[in-house]
Amino acid sequence: MGKIRVEGLKKSYGTNQVLKGIDMQVQEGEVVCLIGPSGSGKSTFLRCINRLEEITAGRVIVDDQDINDPKTDINKARENIGMVFQHFNLFPHFSVLKNIMFAPMELGKMDAAKARDTALGLLERVGLSYKADVFPNQLSGGQKQRVAIARALAMNPDVMLFDEPTSALDPEMVGEVLGVMKDLAREGMTMVIVTHEMGFAREVADRVVFMDGGYTVEEGPPEEVFGNPKNDRTISFLEKVL
Ligand code: ADP
Ligand code: MG
User: Fold this and answer.
1) I need a surface site. Which of 25, 169, 184, 212 has the fewest CB within 10 A?
2) Which numbered ligand comes closest to the C-alpha of 38?
3) What are the pocket residues of ligand 1 if the criterion is a CB atom closer than 6 Å to any ligand atom?
4) Which residues are in the ABC transporter domain (predicted)?
């Protein structure tokens, strides 16, 4: 049974059909990297998984819960789905520690002492214990993104969604963020990652999915998609980015 099951997913904005019928299953512990040209619907697809977008047709099931069923408590479901964005989206007026403690406390998951312990443990995991008391504007981009990952992990999610987590970073900071993501993958986290880091996808992904024009055009193990792409559009995309 897939941890994430997407069936016949369509999404339109007005007359613009962005997702044209996507089927995808992600197994527990699987790392799926989503690649494809700008505008192909990758971000929209990710946002449909935790219902940041209302879908036009189809179904999205996470942990056996239909995300779009009116009976589903979407806030509860989202607690289980961590998301990391290109632009970090940290709370600027909270310290690093408080950024991580906020959701578990606000949602009544943890008392302050437990939230603090959890946050400190996560900061250690992402190598930023020494930044606990600073504010986001005192961090580099790579540090901000590592805090954003720690913050998403604080809710102890089953699934993590990443939307181009390194695209806004200076090149020298990409590695530290990918390193944290590699650790997560190794620990068995179920992850869907939109990325332009083909080297990372090749190394870490169990499966690579190429999206174009609102469809998943080709998918397979990274060796196959990168080493022996079959679809013309995949070939032409990879020629441009590799
Ligand atoms: P990608 O992440 O692959 O670059 P997106 O999912 O961001 O692609 O966008 C796919 C298409 O959907 C684009 O044509 C974009 O203009 C359109 N789109 C995305 N979000 C919205 C929105 N909130 N309202 C209207 N159109 C949107
Ligand atoms: Mg995008």
Assistant:
1) 25
2) 1
3) 13, 16, 18, 36, 38-44
4) 4-238
Residues in the chain: 242
Domain count, the chain: 1
What digits encode the pLDDT tens for the residues 169-194?
999 999 999 999 999 999 999 999 99
Shortest-distance atom of ligand 1 to CA 211: 3
Any idea what the CATH number is for the domain that residue 45 is in?
3.40.50.300
Evaluate if pTM is beyond 0.90. yes
Instruction: State whether ipTM is beyond 0.95.
Output: yes
**pLDDT per residue as tens digits for the range 201-217:** 999 999 999 999 999 99
For ligand 1, atom 23: residue with the closest CA: 13
Do 94 and 102 form a contact (C-beta atoms < 8 A)?
Answer: yes
| Residue position matching structure tokens 């940041």 | 52
Which two structure tokens, joined as six digits, stand for 221? 């193990």
Percent of the chain with pLDDT over 90: 99
Among 80, 41, 239, 12, residue whose Cα is nearest residue 24: 41
